[in-house]
């Protein structure tokens, strides 16, 4: 059994519905099936990340990405622009320039700030970045993609935090930070790759008990860090959509 920190015993029964946060499929020309599946009625999506060029919005509007983003937004799905913070080494001006392009070209509903710093000392700068992003897109949904539990103050400065991003081998023994008990499950996201089909129920229970309502689980692997496991759809997509839609018994 995984070592779980069940913040409060009620996290699994709060009434918050679990759903998918899509970290960013490959370009629509490369992954047309994936993008088409996202507009299937009834798919429990919280948001989808648009990452046009691998690191941002690209140098000009991409017609295929415009079409994909438009279909999602017409279906009522929130679309987020991908911004790479490079662990805080990227100049804020560059982030803001990318954010403006995402807003102007693709009419995104918010942003995923990937590789976001997590330490206490970086919080003031990240707070300024989040404030500026919300000025670029009114009502922007901002997700900070640390991939680990950051200093607790970050939870007050974003709509959601990605507090786990990694492999199933580590996830099944992971623990939630105690401070997360002070926040509802819809504040937290978990992205887990290399999850075998036979462990889907276990993975979903871990997310629920650790208080993460937005998830993305896939059987794709990173091959030791050489490939992006999020670019293609899991082999068990229909299965996990069904499980999320009906809920998982505790």
Instruction: Please state roughly what percent of the residues sit in beta strands, choosing from under 5%, 5-15%, 15-25%, 25-35%, 35-45% or over 45%.
Output: 15-25%
**What order do the helices and strands follow?**
EHEHEHEHEEHEHEH
Find the structural class using helix and strand composition. alpha/beta
| Strand order, largest beta sheet | 1-2-3-4-5-6-7-8
Number of strands: 8
Mean pLDDT: 92
Structural shape: globular
How would you portray this structure in words?
With 250 residues, the protein is α/β, with parallel strands linked by helices. 28% of the residues lie in helices and 18% in strands. It has seven helices and eight strands, in the order βαβαβαβαββαβαβα. α3 runs parallel beside α4. The N terminus is likely disordered.
Nutshell version of this structure?
The chain has helices at residues 32-37, 63-74, 92-106, 123-136, 168-171, 200-209, 237-246, and strands spanning 19-22, 45-50, 79-84, 110-114, 141-145, 160-167, 188-193, 214-217. The chain is an alpha/beta fold.
């Amino acid at each position: 059994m995984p070592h779980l920190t069940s913040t409060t015993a009620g996290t699994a029964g709060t009434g918050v519905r679990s759903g998918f946060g899509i970290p960013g499929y490959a370009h629509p020309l490369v992954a047309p099936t994936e993008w088409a599946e996202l507009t299937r009625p009834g798919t429990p999506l919280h948001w989808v990340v648009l990452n046009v060029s691998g690191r941002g919005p690209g140098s000009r509007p991409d017609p295929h990405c415009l079409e994909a983003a438009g279909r999602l937004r017409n279906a009522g799905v929130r679309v987020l622009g991908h911004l790479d913070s490079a662990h805080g080494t990227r100049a804020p001006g560059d982030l803001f320039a990318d954010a403006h392009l995402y807003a102007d070209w693709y009419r995104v509903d918010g942003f995923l700030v990937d590789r976001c710093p997590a330490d206490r000392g970086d919080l003031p700068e990240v707070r300024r970045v989040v404030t500026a992003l919300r000025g670029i897109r009114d009502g922007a949904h901002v997700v900070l993609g640390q991939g680990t539990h950051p200093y607790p103050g970050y939870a007050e400065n974003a709509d959601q935090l990605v507090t786990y991003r990694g492999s199933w081998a580590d996830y099944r023994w992971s623990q939630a930070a105690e401070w997360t008990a002070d926040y509802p499950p819809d504040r937290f996201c978990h992205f887990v790759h290399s999850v075998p089909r036979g462990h889907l129920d276990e993975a979903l229970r871990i997310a629920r008990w650790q208080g993460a309502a937005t998830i993305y689980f896939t059987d794709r692997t990173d091959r030791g860090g050489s490939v992006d496991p999020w670019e293609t759809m899991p082999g068990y997509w229909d299965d996990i959509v069904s499980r999320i839609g009906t809920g998982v018994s505790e």
